[in-house]
Write a structure and sequence with these properties.
- There is one protein chain.
- The chain is mainly alpha-helical.
- The chain has one domain.
- The protein has 5 helices and no strands.
- The chain is elongated, with a radius of gyration of 23 Å.
- The protein starts with 22 loop residues before the first helix and ends with a helix.
């Protein structure tokens, strides 16, 4: 009797698909660069702003962390990380709006440079713009939506296959 190997010979089991080099990579790079810029600025301001209140500086630091987590979620793009991405990008849109409304009566909220105060004016409004681009990208690159569109195309072309 011949002894059979339980593991099949996979030979050349490399992924032969080309890497993604399009718009998605640019958006991911935008999130990484913006997140690093916001985070480093918040760290520098935290150490140099000794006489300033800590609250706005912590908010600025949290904004940097939020963008870095969003960048990680966009880079990974798994099911759970997409959920993390939706939450972090949603926060990066909702929190600036909430803080802008709150700062109408409290000037203390705008003491520290932050991506979330003044609608991101300290960072040339890029945080809000990049977050909106991120929402569009998350919707556009949703695997469920892509499969649904492919199934619709397949269903609409199926009568032609039968003839």
């Amino acid at each position: 009797m011949h002894e059979q190997d339980a593991t099949p010979d996979v030979g050349d089991a490399r992924d032969k698909r080309p890497p993604s080099l399009g718009l998605g990579r640019i958006i991911i790079a935008l999130f990484w660069l913006l997140g690093a810029w916001i985070f480093v600025t918040a760290i520098v301001d935290l150490f140099h702003g000794q006489g300033k209140p800590w609250g706005p500086q912590i908010v600025a630091l949290l904004a940097g962390v939020d963008y870095l987590v969003a960048a990680t979620a966009l880079t990974h793009n798994g099911k759970r990380m997409r959920q993390v991405g939706w939450v972090t990008i949603g926060l990066s849109i909702a929190v600036p709006i909430i803080l802008w409304v709150a700062s109408l009566g409290l000037d203390e909220l705008n003491v520290a440079r932050s991506a979330w105060t003044g609608m991101g004016a300290d960072f040339y409004y890029l945080p809000l713009l990049v977050s909106l681009i991120g929402v569009v990208w998350m919707w556009r690159s949703n695997p469920r939506r892509i499969v649904s569109l492919a199934e619709q195309v397949e269903r609409s072309s199926s009568p032609w296959k039968g003839h």
